[in-house]
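User: Predict the structure for this protein chain, please.
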Amino acid sequence: MRIGLLTEGGYPYVSGDAGLWCDRLVRGLAQHEFDIYALSRSRQQEDAGWVPLPEQVSRVRTAPLWTAEDDGVAYGRRARRRFTECYGELVGVVCAGADAPSDAESGQLADRFGSALYGLAELARDEGGLVGALRSDTAVRALERACRAPGALRTAHEARVPDLLTVTAHLERALRPLSLDWYGDQGLGAADLCHATAGGPAALPGLLARHFGDVPLLVTEYGVQLRSHYLALGPDTAAPAVRALLAAFHGRLAAEVYQRAAILTPGNAHARRWQERCGADRSRIRTVHPGMEAARFAEVGESPDRADADTLVWVGRVEPVKDLVSLLHAFAEVRKEEPKARLRIVGAPTAPEGEAYLGHCRALAAQLFPDEAEGAHAVGDNPVSFEEIGGPETPTLPDAYAAGAVVVLSSVVEGFPVSLVEAMFCGRATVSTDVGAVVEAIGGTGLVVPPRNPRALAEACVTLLRDPERRERLGAAARARALELFTVEQNISAFHSIYLDIVSHCPVRRVVLDKAGAPLPFAAPAEAHVPVRWTGPTARVLTRGVPGWAAGGPVRATPLAAPEGAR
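Assistant: Here is the predicted structure, written as C-alpha cells:
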C-alpha cells in the first residue's frame, strides 16, 4: 500500500526529531511505498539536508513552518465574506467561555470548530491560499470581536492589541498546512493511508486528506503535542490572554485530530491518558512502545561483570528538566554512606540554556566536594566526572552504561525514558524518578523514587550499591523486559498489523471488474497491497464516486495462487 508519512520538524531532516524512529519504520516496512510530507522548523534544519532514504520512499515534499511568503492572493468580495465567516467561527469557538458546558454543548463546539477549519481549507483550495488573509486586519478584527463577545473566556476579554496580534500571528503559522497543495490527486489523495508521526501541525494535512479524499488517518504520539504547548506557554513567555487563547486553540485542534483519526498509537500510557482526557475514543487507541536497537547493547548486556561496583552513571541530554542538581545533592548523601562511590555524568548540552546549566552543575560539584575538587588547591580527584560520548573515557554509548553498576535517572519531566530503556538493554539495575512513562517502562525491574527528593534518591542508590545480588537480579529482569517490549522488531510488527487493520476497514474506493464486466469480490484485499504496479489484462477498474486519481489508475494486487489440488 502507499503510505503518506507526515512529519513536523523531523524525518527526513538530519537534525529532525524522531528521525531515527521514522527511518527504522520506513526501512522495516519495505513491502509498502512511502511518500514523505515534511514540515520543517528552521532554515538551519533545511540547510542540514536529509538522511539517506531507502528505495521504498517514492518522493518527498516539504514545506516550512518557520516562514511563509505572502501568497499574493487577492480575494474578491465573495471570498472575503467566506473567510470572515469561517475564521470568525473558528476563533469564536476558541474564545468560547469555560462555564462547564454540557456534553451536548461541548459536541456542538467541536462540530463548529471542525466545520470552520474545513471551510478555511476549502477556501484555500478554491482561491489559492490563506496566508495573506490570515495575516490581514480582517483576521485581527475577527479575533477581537470573538474576545469581546458575551460568554467569551474571561482572560480573552482582557486581551490588548499586542496580545491580539501575537495570537493572530501564531494562528497563521499553525494553519499554514491549509494553504499547501498536497491534497490533490497527485498528492495525499493518492495515499491508501496517512500516518502522522505527531499531533498538531503534523496531523493537520492528514485531517485535510481525510476531508477531501476520505483517506484514513493514523496518528502516533510519542510525546503529546498538546502537553508540549502547555509547557512552552509559561507565565514568563506570554501574557495570560495569549496563553489562554493558544491553549484553547491547540486543545480544540487536538480534539479534532483524536476524533477523526482511525487509530491513535500513543507510545506509552502517559500519552494515552492525555489523549483520552482530550476526548479520544478508548476503543481506537493502541499503545505502541518506541522501537529501539537492541543489538548495539548486546555485548554489554551479556557481560554484566564489566561494571564498576562503586560507580553510578547518568546518561542523557544536559538540561534543567533532567535535575542534575538534585542528583548531585543526592550523591553527596551517598558519599557519606559509601566513601568509594563515584558518579559519572555522561551527556552534552543541547542549547545555550544547557551550556549554562552544565556550568552551574560543574560549580556545584566543586562546592559539594571541596577537598577533592580539581584546581590549584585541589587534593585528589573529584568523585563526579562530566563526560561526553566519543571522549577517551566513553567512546560509545554502550561504554557509558557499561561503566557503572547502577544507572540513575533524576528527571522532573520525562516522556518515554529512552536512556532508561537503553540501560535495561545493557542489563543494568536502575534508580529513577517517578515521572512520565518511567514506571510503565521499567515495570518493577528497578527502584523508583519521587522527583526532586535527593534523600530518597540517595537511599535507593545506596541500597543497590550495597546489594550486588539484587543488582544482578534486577538487571537481568530489566534486560528481559526490554527485549520483549521495546525492540525495533516489535515496533515494526505492530505498525504493519495496524496498517492492514485500518485499510481492511476502509470503504472500497475502487471496484475491480473481470472480462465480462462483473465485479470481483475481495479482488484486492488489504493483504494484497504491495509496492508494485499490477497491469494484468484480465481485469479493469471502475471508479465509484472517488477522486479523479483513482480513475484509470493501476490496481495494486497480487494474483492468488491456485489451490494445491487444482494444479
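Residues 522-567 have pLDDT under 50 and may be disordered.
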